[in-house]
Every structure is written in structure tokens, then in C-alpha cells.
Amino acid sequence: MQPRSGAAPSIMAPAPNVDEPTPVSGSETAVLAGGCFWGVQGVYAHVKGVTEAESGYAGGDRATASYETVSTGSTGHAESVRITYDPSQVTYGQLLQIFFSVVQDPTELNRQGPDEGTQYRSAIFAQDATQQRVAQSYIDQLTQAGVFPGPIVTSVVPPKAAFFPAERYHQDFLNSNPSFPYIATFDMPKLDSLKQLFPAQYRDQPTLVLADGR
User: Fold this and answer.
1) Fewest CB atoms less than 10 Å from the CB: which of 36, 52, 100, 114?
2) H/E element, 155
3) Cross-strand bridge partners of residue 82
4) Residue 46: how many CB atoms within 10 A of its CB?
5) Which CATH number fits the domain that encloses residue 149?
6) In terms of residue numbers, what domain contains 110?
């Protein structure tokens, strides 16, 4: 384990033994929840092959998909990030490897770092049966290998949960506020770990949600 100032420890998780087949062309979507979406979005925005990483909410209904309501912890939503990616450049399995290595601590139940509540839970919202199979296989692989010091509590949600984009002011928050105390303490170290552990997947210029004027 490698300590990170203020953040959960990073660890180089092994590559998945099972991954999705690579399509000839097109883009795909992954939805991951690993604590405050600022840091999750900030990391994946710097991953080669990711064309968009958008903060939002998954696991609950449209009517409760707002920051104030989700923050009560009673909506079923988790702060999540919808990742649109080119699978010919980065696979679903590689996104999961980054997720378990640097994005979050999969042994923390209903919390990440200083944030507590079900809205900060670790979850993989599978978009289809293949993603569900790859994700569950990877968790089983990591468990059998004893990669983490405690049980993995990351849930794999079947392909049924809708994703609802978060408010505009949450988008690209890490990129816009790198010196914000929370970001500097808990999220910038994750970006440093991405660059160190996954140099081939890291890109210096992030993809930004608000770059298109939204």
C-alpha cells in the first residue's frame, strides 16, 4: 500500500482476468460511484480514451436527483460519474482497474474518507450484462488474491439504474478548483497516483464537461 496525504491508500491492483470484447468502433458508457464525485470525475477526465466524465446521481429516482436531496442519504442515489469512453483505447476492465487502484477504497462501507452516508458508497452501475459479469469477476479476482486488507464492499448493480447529471457547478470541479481545501487534500493525491501508477493511460489535458458551453 502506498500512503496518500489525506486520501485513501492507493494500490496497484492487477489487471482483470476477464474484460469486455473490443468492438470495431463506437463509444461505450460506464457509471461508477466511489465517494464524492468531484474526485472520481477529476481522475477519469485525465484517462486516455475517455471522451467525457460527468458527475451525477444513480440508484434513485429522477424526482430526488438533486444535490440537496441526495445529501440527506435517504434517496437511494449515490454520487456517481458517467464515463463515456472509446473501448479501442481504454477497456471497461482498465477503467475498473483504475477505480480499484486509485479512485476509492473498496473496503469502506457507505463512506469514503471524511464523507459518510449511503450517497458516498462504492458501487458499479453495470450498463449491460457484459459489464455486470466483468465487474463481478474482477471483484472475485481481487478478493481471491487478497489484494485489499479487508472485504470488498463495492456493489455491482444490475443494468437498471438510471443516471441523472448533477448540477452545473459540480461539473469539472477538480479542474476548476485544484486548490480548494477538500480537493487539495483528498482528490489531487488521486490524480498524482493515476499519473504514477498508470502512466500509459494518463493524459495531462482533461476532457471537460463544460467545454461545450453547457
Assistant:
1) 114
2) strand 155-157
3) 31, 54
4) 23
5) 3.30.1060.10
6) 26-199
Structural domain includes residue 204: no
Does residue 182 surpass a pLDDT of 90? Answer: yes
Domain assignment of residue 21, yes or no: no
Secondary-structure percent of the chain, ordered helix, strand, coil, rounded to 5: 35, 20, 45
- Write out the DSSP string of 104-132: --TT-TTEETTEESGGG-EEEE-SSHHHH
pLDDT tens track for 10-31: 899 999 999 998 776 789 999 9
Is residue 5 over pLDDT 70? no
> What own/partner pairs with CB < 8 Å and gap ≥ 24 does 108-112 have?
108/8, 108/153, 109/153, 111/35, 112/8, 112/34, 112/35, 112/36
Residues taking part in catalysis: 36
Half-sphere exposure of 206 (CA within 13 A, CB side): 26
3-state secondary structure of 157: strand
Count of domains forming the chain: 1
50 phi, psi to nearest 5 deg = -85, 125
Residue 100 lies in a domain: yes
Amino acid at 152: I
Measure the CA–CA gap between 44 and 174, rounded to whole angstroms: 11
Residue 89 within any structural domain of the chain:
yes
Q: Roughly what angle, to the nearest 10 degrees, separates helices 37-44 and 188-197?
A: 30
